């Protein structure tokens, strides 16, 4: 399957993630929801490895960039849930959805 399939699947999954995140925050805190996301992400990663998804070598460069990326993602996830907890999803999600434009500009610069 090509990039377009995965891109459109990501859009659908991220839309569900945003909606379900707001619903989860009715009874859970942003920290609890972030922790559950981390557990689910680890399980998905283990399943991907188990079914044969190839992995890169564990060089120092791979590790530090991966850790930095994961830390940014985890902090961003926590602030995402905090935004949903304190505001309307119909307002917070479109603002948060601006990040691809920031990535596009940064990709040109770097």
Walkthrough of the structure:
The chain is mostly helical and 110 residues long. It has one domain (3-109). The chain is built from five helices and no strands. α2 (30-50) runs antiparallel to α3.
Say how many strands there are.
0
Instruction: Report how far the terminal alpha carbons are from each other.
Output: 29 Å
Q: Summarize the amount of helix as a percent range.
A: over 70%
Percent strand equals under 5%
Q: Number of helical segments?
A: 5
Number of domains: 1
Shape: globular
Query: Nearest-angstrom radius of gyration?
Result: 16 Å
Query: Which structural class best describes the helix and strand composition?
Result: mainly alpha
Mean pLDDT: 92
Using brief descriptors, characterize the structure shown:
110 residues; 5 helices
């Amino acid at each position: 399957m090509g990039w377009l399939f995965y891109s459109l699947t990501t859009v659908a999954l991220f839309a569900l993630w945003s909606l379900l995140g707001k619903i989860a925050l009715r009874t859970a805190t942003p920290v609890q929801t972030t922790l559950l996301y981390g557990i689910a992400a680890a399980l998905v990663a283990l399943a991907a490895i188990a079914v044969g998804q190839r992995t890169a070598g564990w060089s120092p460069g791979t590790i530090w960039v991966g850790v930095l990326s994961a830390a940014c993602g985890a902090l961003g996830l926590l602030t995402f849930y905090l935004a949903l907890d304190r505001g309307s999803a119909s307002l917070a999600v479109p603002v948060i959805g601006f990040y691809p434009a920031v990535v596009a500009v940064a990709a040109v610069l770097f």
